[in-house]
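Morning!

This is the sequence you dropped in the shared folder:
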Amino acid sequence: MDAATAPPPAAVEIVALTKRYAAGTPPAVDQIDLRIASGSYCCLLGPSGCGKSTTLRMVAGHESVSAGDILLDNRNITHLQAAGRGTAMMFQSFALFPHLSALDNVAFSLKMKGVSKVERHRRAGQLLERVAMGHLAQRKPAELSGGQQQRVALARALITEPRVLLLDEPLSALDPFLRIQMRAELRRWQKELGLTFIHVTHSQEEAMALADTMVVMNHGLIEQVGSPHEVYNHPASEFVARFMGGHNVLAVPGGGLIAVRHDHTRIAPDGEGLAADVTDVEYQGTYVLMGLHLAESTPERRGVSVQLTERAFAERPYAVGERVRLSWTAADARVLGPGATRPEARSPGTPSVRQPLAALASMAA
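The structure's back. Tokens below.
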């Protein structure tokens, strides 16, 4: 590959990174490999206990590495102290000193380095102005709202001039309205600063709104890496399809699985498609979400969902208990692979081979 077609250099490269807390127990992070491009916004996403926060803490230097390497622009930082890595952490709780003003909270790390009061206050004041907090520089954390505290925490992280900013669920402590507002600000700040952001979250919506690259984790392994559009529209495994939501996961002849988006699953004319019974109807404003159970599914009836536009449902409303037929096109069905889950942790029924798209024809209208 020549220089013109080579990918941009990775700001962060993780190689066979492993964290094991005790001998004989499954690793919290199991030999993962990941490249995060310079200047990109990367979200580590997954359920509680998947290893995302442990991975972030190892990159930050707040958690020891059992095996593997962490590189920052080809410099091995695996065993460096946190302060010497070129990274900074923004914590979930913001971790502001309650007895210090916003200005002194931001300036604190410079004080520890022996920077003069005049200089550290000058630099801290500049950063507070940048995050629209200069007018509240003398207030203490208890006198600030959640969003204002987050801006102070961001300024405090930036004063160390990091090359990579690490964010550990920074929006989880905020109310839903403020969370939406602050994620837009985080994205704007990342673009303006040109830094690499690595952001841990359990929120699919948050990751899709923020990330250039999403990394979906499960049982200490990486299930899928890609853009939000790629991960949502082309889930690689049953776990990804179910965790991201918005998909029906269905068995196909031969034992494999497919994923079909709720809004791509259609109510078919009588006599076509799969029989299903309506179990729930939820009005969601711009659309109606219908819950159904397949009439024929073993060993138990499998639940599925159909998303209809508000207009389509108004023209033909469906009632709980009504029998309908479901169909989809072959182009809308995604064949699911086995995923990256360790064999001992895989759920029963997870397919071990990919099924050809031709197998979907018998299930599509």
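Headline: The first helix runs from residue 52 to 60.

More detail when I'm at my desk.
O.
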